[in-house]
Write a structure and sequence with these properties.
141 residues, three-stranded antiparallel sheet
């Protein structure tokens, strides 16, 4: 069995002595980490879920005092919507109610990808304008 003895001398040095096959290391006290007994562990933490709301950026906060604390979440707004434009039109008005400005991908009734000018009227309504009238689907996400 090996025994390690650590002593702190008054001249600002820490000495580590390993007995059994005697070796001694002496270092200046500056930069030496002092290890102490951590004591008895406290009770386990009890976490509960508090508020969960939507917002522009994800966030988590913790409230309360250990061991009883609450996690509160802000989740980014998400979702998708498919708009079916049955009547041919050069301007599609889409009410999606997603609560954010989604990316828009348009496919005509023949399955061809079509590029249009997207105008965000609000976080729930947008228009897509094209050079010609046609029907199809708009995929929003």
């Amino acid at each position: 069995m090996t025994t390690v003895e650590v002593t702190k001398s008054p001249n600002k040095y820490v000495t580590v002595t390993k007995t059994s096959t005697i070796s001694t290391v002496s270092k200046p006290l500056e930069g030496v980490l002092e290890v102490r007994d951590p004591g008895v562990a406290g009770p386990p933490n009890t976490l509960t879920i508090g508020t969960v709301v939507s917002g522009a950026a994800p966030a988590v906060s913790i409230t309360g005092i250990a061991p009883t604390q609450t996690l509160n979440f802000v989740l980014p707004v998400g979702g998708n919507y498919t708009h079916n434009q049955i009547t041919s039109s050069a301007t599609w008005t889409i009410t999606h109610n997603l609560g954010f400005f989604p990316a828009v991908s348009v496919v005509d009734s023949g399955g061809n990808h079509v590029i249009g000018d997207v105008n965000y009227v609000s976080v729930n309504i947008l228009t897509v304008s094209f050079n010609a009238s046609f029907g199809g689907k708009a995929y929003l996400s």
